[in-house]
Amino acid sequence: MTQRIQGKRESLNSYFHEKVRMCEELKFSFCELKREILIGVWSRTLCEAMMAKQHFTTDHLLHDMHSLSTLYT
Q1: What is the pLDDT of residues 11-62, one digit of tens each?
Q2: Which distant-in-sequence residues (6+ apart) come within 8 Å of 55 by Cβ?
Q3: Among 41, 35, 34, 48, which residue's Cα sits nearest to residue 5?
Q4: Local confidence band at 73 (pLDDT 50, 70, 90 cut-offs)
Q5: Exposed, middle or buried, 67 (CB in 10 Å: 0-12/13-18/19+)?
Q6: Does residue 11 sit in helix, strand or coil?
Q7: What's the pLDDT at 48?
Q8: Which domain of life is it from (predicted)?
């Protein structure tokens, strides 16, 4: 799981959806899923910003990541 990280030129959507599928197969809680996704994100600043925010769904998390990715990548 930890070996799957976002490639430098990989789209956020591709990485995000693949990582969500992997986490769901392992029946991770949302908190674990969020952590696993953010650990592998290319931008450390985006990771830190998203860790500090509260999210309740994967849709909400992805939306916030897209919103902030233009600022932090």
Answers
A1: 999 999 999 999 999 999 999 999 999 999 999 999 999 999 999 999 999 9
A2: 30, 34, 61, 64
A3: 41
A4: low
A5: exposed
A6: coil
A7: 94
A8: Eukaryota
Q: Which of 41, 29, 37, 27 is nearest to 72 (CA)?
A: 41
- Type of residue at 55: H
| CA-based radius of gyration for the chain | 11
pTM above 0.85, yes or no: yes
First vs last C-alpha separation in the chain: 23
How far is CA 50 from its chain centroid? 8
Q: Do 64 and 55 form a contact (C-beta atoms < 8 A)?
A: yes
